[in-house]
Amino acid sequence: MIRASFNDNWQFRPKVNPFAELAGTAVPFQPVTVPHDAMLTRDREATMDGAATAYFPGGAYEYRKTFFTPEEHRGKRIMLEFEGVYRDATVFINGNYAGQRPYGYSRFFIDADRFLRFGENNQIRVECRTHQDSRWYSGAGIYRDTWLLIGDVVRIRPDGVQVTTPDIDTERAVVEVATTVENDSIDIRTVELVTEIRDAAGTVVASDTAPVTVQPGEPAVARQRFYVRDPSLWSPDSPALYTCAVSLTDIDAAEVTFGIRSLRLDPEHGLRINGETVKLRGACVHHDNGPLGAATFARAEERRVRLLKDAGFNAIRMSHHPMSTAMLDACDRLGMLVVDEAFDMWTWGKNPFDYSLDFPEWWKRDIEAMVAKDYNHPSVVLYSLGNEIPEAGSATGAIWGRRLAEKVRALDDTRFLTNAVNNLLALLPDLTDLRAQGEEGTGINTLMADSGFDVNAVAGSELVTTRTAETYSMLDVAGMNYSEIRYATDHTLFPNRIILGTETFPTRIDDNWRLVQQHSHVIGDFTWTGWDYLGEVGIGRPQYSTPDTPHPTFTAPYPSLLAGCGDLDITGHRLPASYYREIVFGLRGRPYLAVQRPQHHGKTVMSSRWAWSDTIASWTWPGHETAPIIVEVYSAADEVELLVNGRSLGRDPVGEQHRFRTEFETAYEPGELLAIAYRDGVESGREMLRTASGSVALHAEPDRPVITADVGDLAYITFTLVDPAGTVHTAADRPVRVDVSGDGTLIGFGSADPSAKDRFDATERHTYQGRALAVLKPTAPGNIRLLATAPDCVPVEVLVTVEKPDR
């Protein structure tokens, strides 16, 4: 089917009661282009139960669009594709109910032709809502791409081309292509199916032609077997891609991208890709794009994947729902492995109005949608059936788990299955006894955040072993959240069990990675989280003990906005935890410097286990001259020396035996801070921080000087406040105002301030630690001009060229 973007010319408003509107209560529609996050347009509210969604309120919304359908399309099959609508989407065409989808993360199709008026304008209306149904910032509205599909009565089914590579060696690869052809006519039809396999250069490396006879209303699956000589194999280090182009002569055509790669799994070698063992250096990631909210643009997804890979990750676990098509495409191109997750809940709700209310009726269709979306993506190596499902330790939970597992296997037996089990939750309803260890009313997350509560001890108990035995037995890989205590013992108890740390505390990566490397049956570690996110506010914030708050709390009060626990912040800037992880992974030879904020010196830290130390990579602390200050140095070397303005503070042992870190206490004095690492007494690397001094300048830098007017492309403009030498001035924050003109528009503007009150759709934002980020969307080929101003700074201008799309 011909597939065209349907993103333009929508209108949006909060949903209005039609009877109230008849009585004169009118709410005007506003023009929007989707993807669009309706929740991000709302003002935040300091509500008691708003921490999960960053204090953005829920609501009901409606979108409408008028579009012309030519007379010549009469007799065609016309469908609408929605990649994601949050949540409880209901679609009307010309006032007629056309379909719905309760789950906010599933792609779905609407058969539209039966409701259309040909040769006239038609109207589509989409209603959706969100209300106490998520544990994180979900966003709302039509937040992913929409498409219009037009085809003949005989056509290739959407998602009807599935490619597998069942047999691979160095000389040739077998590529099997299954194409589903549909026939909605009243006659038996025989069509000619032409299939070509092309390499990255576009050269045809295999082809075949075959007749296919299709009965009315009975789809036909045509299977073809190809042999690709000297195949280029897809892997994280070399993500080679091929294209499969399928056509029904003079009728229809489809094209999919795939990779040739093999997957193997066993306790002795772990996960093997193309015969090579791969350990997953994993990042858990929520779906929001920071200043863009939940709006999913292809460039935003690609940028996030690239930055995560540059930071040392080779795998992403999408938490806790199916990944967007745009991110999957980026993972394919860039060589990022994927654990795609189906649900955050099954039959037991985690919020009053969440998907558990719809799960029993809709789970099969949502599993089908996830697998159909993922099938041809070589980056996807594991499907996860769920996250911290409370039923996992019960008999009925095991029944549900087996249903889901076998459903996935029936649809796709080429990947492996896991389930991210929190062994603490597997003890329900015994958790009432565990709560007694904490304060009255303490929730599970708060218990886990408290360093006085031993999560691992519970996870390693014999009761957990018994309760989870059936749940783990039906999986290819036992996914375990915060349960590394089981890695060694389970290899003895269950010799065939393969384990993946599906969610772990960032502060334990050194111990966890040692276990991953030590045990062949443990295939990787996924930190919570790789990228900071909106909602679950403050779980990774620094906390200090006071008489009123002697224990850490899970979330923070309004105006907290961010979780505060990512290796990268919401603008994509790498934080100290990221560089520490890179050192632990063995990917960074130089040491790294992180400085604790001097204003908290001497206080008792009581942060949660999701929190890194309260540090930034800065030696600019005006007002704290001569005050005591602690410098952290991360390194895999034998020892490190710290020098302040050329004066040595001595050498300390570091490396794996010392958890790859050490601390030096000194008095703050402006100038230069230098760390020198040594191996066997010989310098192996150095890192320096300089104090920002002198006048402050506003610097603006686009991520790319040239973009395209293609669907989903964006330009990211990074703002930094710098001194004359280019050192970022982390203590000179000020408001930055932007004016955008030409062939583009500002769609997001923000910083990594964890408690910012500024709106992301404003034209003025305060920097945070000297940084801010603006996101521009092209509207047509040409040029986008951005003028930025800040107090006591010379204005700066950025020019981004927008080229025509290649196609």
3D architecture notes:
The chain is mainly β. The strands form eleven sheets. An eight-stranded parallel β-barrel has the order 23-24-25-26-27-28-29-30, surrounded by four helices. It has a six-stranded antiparallel sheet with strand order 3-2-4-10-7-8, with no helix packed on it. Strands 40-47-46-42-44 form a five-stranded mixed sheet, with no helix packed on it. Helix 2 crosses helix 3 (325-334) and helix 4 packs parallel to helix 5. The relative contact order is 0.08. InterPro entries: Beta-gal/glucu_dom_sf, DUF4982, Galactose-bd-like_sf, GH, GH2_Domain-Containing, Glyco_hydro2_dom5, Glyco_hydro_2, Glyco_hydro_2_cat. Pfam families: DUF4982, Glyco_hydro2_C5, Glyco_hydro_2, Glyco_hydro_2_C. This is Glycoside hydrolase family 2 protein.
**CATH fold group of the largest domain:** TIM Barrel
Query: What is the architecture of the largest domain at the second tier of CATH?
Result: Alpha-Beta Barrel
The largest beta-sheet arranges its strands as 23-24-25-26-27-28-29-30
Overall pLDDT level: 95
Uncertain runs are: 435-441
Query: Beta-sheet strand percentage?
Result: 35-45%
Please identify the oligomeric state: single chain
Q: How far is it from the N-terminal to the C-terminal residue, by CA? A: 17 Å
Radius of gyration: 27 Å
Number-wise, the strands total: 47
What share of residues is helical? Answer: 10-25%
Specify the CATH homologous superfamily of the largest domain.
Glycosidases
Shape: globular
How many separate structural domains?
Answer: 5
Number of helices: 13
CATH top level of the largest domain is Alpha Beta
**Helix/strand class:** mainly beta
How many strands, which pairing sense, and closed or not: the largest β-sheet? 8 strands, parallel, barrel
